[in-house]
Design a protein that fits this description.
The complex is a heterodimer of chains A (125) and B (138). With 125 residues, chain A is of the alpha+beta class. Chain A has a single domain, classed as Glutaredoxin. Chain A has helices at residues 13-24, 39-44, 50-53, 69-79, 84-90, 96-108, 114-120; strands at residues 3-8, 30-35, 58-61, 65-68. In chain A, helix 4 crosses helix 6. Chain B is mostly helical and 138 residues long. Chain B has one domain (3-120). Chain B contains four helices and one strand; from the N terminus they run αααβα. Chain B has helices at 3-37, 42-66, 77-116, 133-137, and one strand at residues 126-127. In chain B, helix 1 (3-37) runs parallel beside helix 3. The longest helix of chain B is centred in the last third of the chain and has 40 residues, at 77-116. Chain B is rod-shaped and about 90 Å long. The mean pLDDT of chain B is 86. Classes of the chains: A alpha+beta (125), B mainly alpha (138). Chain A binds chain B through residues 1, 28, 40, 43-48, 60-68, 71, 74-75, 78, 84-85, 87-88, 91, and chain B through 115-116, 118, 120-133, 136.
Amino acid sequence: MRQLTVLYDPECGLCRRVREWLIAQPKYVELLFVAVNSSEAIFRYPMLNHALTRRDVTVIADDGGVYWGAKAWLMCLWALRQYREWSFRLSSPELLPTARRVVSMISQNRYRLEGVGRVFLRNSG
Amino acid sequence: MNILVVTYLVYLAISIALTVWVAQTLFKNGRVFLVDAFHGNEPLADSVNHLLVVGFYLINLGYVSLALELGYDVNTTRESIEALARKVGLVLLVLGGMHFFNLLIFSRMRRRSVIANAQPPIGPDQYTVTREPETCAS
């Protein structure tokens, strides 16, 4: 696995900030950012349910593996040099349900959480 | 030569021999870990191994020489052996501590390389067809 494509929502401020932060991090695996439901996304993944990708962040590996929601976040962490260990910790059976809950809460409220992103990710990217 | 000097000399001989033995063990067996941690880069592994062993010698021999002084007179063989046992025991504990510290360093280095090569912790939810924009244009 050499590249992961992240389908992100360019209309959400939090997503844009997280994207900037991810771009600035040192990586094991390259991350390519494509806007959800864009012509590029539809071209690259013709068989994907693009209506579903609007709901939550989606990561697609270069082997065609699709990761939704919490799994997509874990894959992003896994790609980063400084946070790969966290992807293993958070994917343990004890923590994965909590991770799923937190991620789905963040996704559903992502337009309202813009201010939080501004505070936490101010100095990056 | 009085009994105190003999005690000191025996102490030095035992301590230095123990230090050399532990350092050699570390040097010989730590190499495998380091070669693995550095992805088979043997010159780098040998170099780091050597540097670790030098540090090990410096700290242990430093401790051995600082702990040499008894601070009281030794007149009988019994007192001599007791003093020797206490001193050598301390040296052994310090050596053991240093040895485990070195093992910790080895396993940390190895762990880092294992993580760098690890597969994702989770499998995909589904598979989809992918197309690269370049392949379409041609």
